[in-house]
Design goal:
It comes from Laceyella putida. It catalyses: (2R,3S)-3-isopropylmalate + NAD(+) = 4-methyl-2-oxopentanoate + CO2 + NADH. Helix 1 (14-32) crosses helix 10 (295-307), helix 1 (14-32) packs parallel to helix 12 and helix 8 packs parallel to helix 9. With 361 residues, this protein is α/β, with parallel strands linked by helices. The protein has helices at 14-32, 45-51, 57-64, 88-98, 122-125, 165-180, 196-209, 222-231, 243-256, 295-307, 312-327, 345-356; strands spanning 3-10, 36-40, 68-73, 103-109, 129-135, 147-151, 154-158, 185-190, 216-221, 238-241, 264-268, 274-278.
């Protein structure tokens, strides 16, 4: 029986990094004698150009019929002036909503060999190991109405932050469960001093805390959380927060690791396929130049193997191979210092595949 993987390369550097990720997947399948069935779909700008919509029905059906989804990136300035329903990001949001991918997991840890690439002092990086759990199908990104209208003082715009208590409870409970299996500390991030939605979020977290007496719950306002991620990142174990706060904080946390090109993510539903993608964007300024860092995509593949297929050993081997390559001093441009030699996207992919073999026994 084959394990079905939908690959959505998308836009910008997406095709380059997913190409290397597919070769990595095929090598893992060969080394561990696994059966995989990889099929491709269009999403984002390329789908707009070729199909007239950012999420073709064929792509959505492909994803529904798959066991896991690997996404490259979507978007770019080419489509920035498109109407809202024809923006590449609309396709990604629609995919998340259609598959009910309510939970976005973004692990943050620092490879010791990349400590000098981080903008933080080395002593602040010691013991950094956290997971940001972001609610993914509610909040400002999905609330209605969204509108612009003429008012007495010119254009007026409306974006609505909408959540149900059930949506809050679902993601908070996942945060508690993850903390229970890690270091048992959950930081719930909100803006309860201003937003009514955050006050309900905090009340829901407090109610659930009674079911998890073994987990320490800490509340933190989002502006303080942004500061604490820089001041003392090792204090965090599991962070759980709503959609927009999670989007911003996880990108900030990415820079702790040295590059946004190093962070993977998983978007999960209660049932159905998970979606795995690097958290960086489409980087149109370097698209087609063979310069992109594929490591976040490789780490996303490792998350896929662990979360969707329960192939723990295979995931471990990928992560150890990446660690080895970095420890040997190999870097892509985003990780290198001015004047240092660096690898292309394809060369980094080849180095990681070469390093796999020593861990397969």
């Amino acid at each position: 029986m084959s394990n079905r993987i939908a690959v959505l390369p998308g836009d910008g550097i997406g095709p380059e990094i997913t190409k290397e990720a597919v070769v990595l997947l095929e090598e893992i399948a060969r080394l561990f004698e696994r059966n995989i069935d990889i099929r491709y779909g269009k999403i984002g700008g390329i789908a707009i150009d070729e199909e007239g919509t950012p999420l073709p029905e064929a792509t959505l059906q492909l994803c529904r019929d798959s066991d896991a989804i690997l996404l490259g990136a979507v978007g770019g300035p080419k489509w920035d002036k498109q109407p809202a329903h024809l923006r590449p990001e609309t396709g990604l949001l629609a995919l998340r909503k259609s598959l009910q991918l309510y939970a976005n997991l973004r692990p943050v840890s620092v490879f010791s060999s990349l400590a000098d690439a981080s903008p933080l002092k080395r002593e602040l990086l010691r013991d950094v190991d956290m997971v940001i759990v972001r609610e993914l199908t509610g909040g400002l990104y999905f609330g209605t109405p969204k509108e612009r209208r003429e008012g007495e003082q010119g254009l007026e715009v409306v974006d609505t932050l909408y959540y149900t208590e059930a949506e809050m409870e679902r993601i908070l409970r996942l945060g508690f469960e993850m903390a229970r299996h890690r270091r048992r500390h959950l930081t719930s991030v909100d803006k309860a001093n201003v937003l009514e939605s955050s006050r309900v979020w905090r009340e829901t977290a407090e109610r659930l805390a009674g079911e998890y007496p073994d987990v320490t719950l800490t509340h933190m306002l989002v502006d303080n959380a942004a500061m604490q991620l820089i001041k003392n990142p090792s204090q965090f174990d599991v962070i759980v927060t709503e959609n927009m706060f999670g989007d911003i904080l996880s990108d900030e946390a990415a820079m702790i690791t040295g590059s946004i090109g190093m962070l993977p993510s998983a978007s999960l539903s209660e049932s159905g396929p998970g979606l795995y993608e690097p958290i960086h964007g489409s980087a149109p300024d370097i698209a087609g130049q063979n310069r992109a860092n594929p490591l976040a995509t490789f780490l996303s593949v490792a998350m896929m193997l662990r979360q969707s297929f329960q192939w723990t050993r295979e995931a471990d081997v990928i992560e150890r191979a990446i660690e080895t390559v970095l420890a040997e001093g190999w870097r892509t441009r985003d990780l290198s210092k001015p004047g240092e030699s660096c690898l292309t996207t394809a060369e980094m992919g080849a180095k990681v595949r070469e390093a796999l073999v020593q861990y397969v026994k």
